[in-house]
């Protein structure tokens, strides 16, 4: 009888996981003071996966009023991240996480989730160069290949830094090059390991080029693999490119991906993918300025003092120092891409604000993200609710036609968006005068 009661209880918790859904509107999880309801734990994580379909012929995202969107380059291989070189050439990382064996039931579930959502594909492990003269990439050169799940890219002087999942590499670069044949120099080893749940590594240089900042996500959801596996993870690392010396610049950031310098204040900002499996309304991803030496809560707490009781041992001393993020971006939106707008091509309302690529949820019912949004700024801080820039990435059946990741601004001032399910880089420009309607 006791065994039957236990089985009924387990099945009841599992069923709750199947039925669990958001009780708050997505908008409640946006802004400087998001709603943070009590956590709701289930035996089986909430799964609501948008299966990857890809765009139909002539399909495209839906732009906001006053904008248009066109394919800058299509038929790419899982494009995830973008960088615009000083001469206007666009680098795109065609990449995915390294192949690995399942490490237990939960890991098996996560791998199936990734495959259904369009990830978990064999990584092309290359960087492609795109060059255009009229808004469409006429040149599509293989710029670097034979990499290891590459992601972030950053030129400094005559060097180009590329962040592989396990190391920061340095290559010689001359402006105008369409291919690099020289082998990369390993400047610094980066945390990877057997599990390596958050595999992306972004890199950004300080304005004077003397320091590099590398973002490294956690090895787990909430330290379930042990805290020793999180050494120099869930952090932004600072690196001296001359010596290779590396230190933790800021910590407690579960999965920081996009990084950018705020044009008005010069502060470093990052977009962070927060923790899962405590309900569809928790925890909001966020956009925040990064303080040197700052601790942002993971894994012990979120949004300052909100303790995550799943973590053992607890660290109330660290929780007391946790810095609340500046601006929430909605629960489970997978906010990854970040670019501040300091150009003039797009309408004036975008000046100084931040574009964010939201890759889309798997752990929320109904789904969230699957869009590019804009966060207005004033005085160096977010100043209002987010606005949709590109939508329509989900069809009426809930299938993913595309999933936005990296965002950047090209030399002309257009917004570029990497879409790793649609295998396309989209280019967003003003709608020409006298033309109305969506594409």
Describe this structure in words.
The protein is mainly beta. It folds into two domains: 1-20 and 35-44, no CATH class; 45-430, Neuraminidase, CATH 2.120.10. It has helices at residues 2-19, 105-116, 316-319, and strands at residues 30-31, 62-63, 67-73, 79-84, 90-94, 126-132, 137-144, 153-156, 159-163, 167-172, 185-189, 201-205, 212-216, 235-239, 246-251, 256-261, 268-272, 284-289, 301-302, 306-307, 327-331, 335-340, 354-358, 371-375, 377-378, 381-382, 387-391, 404-409, 415-419, 424-430. Strands 1-21-18-17-16 form a five-stranded antiparallel β-sheet, with no helix packed on it. Strands 2-27-24-23-22 form a five-stranded antiparallel β-sheet, with no helix packed on it. A four-stranded antiparallel β-sheet has the order 3-30-29-28, with no helix packed on it. Strand 12 and strand 13 form a beta hairpin. The longest helix has 18 residues, at 2-19. The chain is globular and about 55 Å long.
